[in-house]
Amino acid sequence: MAKTIDKNMIIGDLIMVDRGIIPILMSAGMHCIGCPSAQGETLEEAAMVHGMDADDIVDTINKYLADK
How many domains in the chain? Predict the structure, then answer.
């Protein structure tokens, strides 16, 4: 069964699931991968700060994980 993520996960934890998530976040405009807040901020919080829809990013990441 493929892993799935949700918008309540911490950015740092997402990266630990699969490092292939990094380019997805970067292409969405989230360049905070190395930022200290990535270790304590959820995907939903980061999306809100960047003016993005967290559900869209979750869908993209989960599609990537399912297609692996």
Answer: 1
Render pLDDT for 24-53 as a digit per residue (tens, 0 to 9): 999 988 877 777 777 889 999 999 988 999
Write the CATH number for 46.
Answer: 1.10.3910.10
Alpha helices in 1-68 (DSSP H): 11-17, 21-27, 43-49, 54-67
- Tell me the residue range of the domain where 18 lies: 11-67
Distances (CA, A) of 10 to 4, 7, 55: 13, 8, 15
Tell me, yes or no, whether 20 lies in a domain: yes
Per-residue pLDDT, 56: 96
Q: Supply angle C-alpha 27, 14, 41, rounded to 5.
A: 90
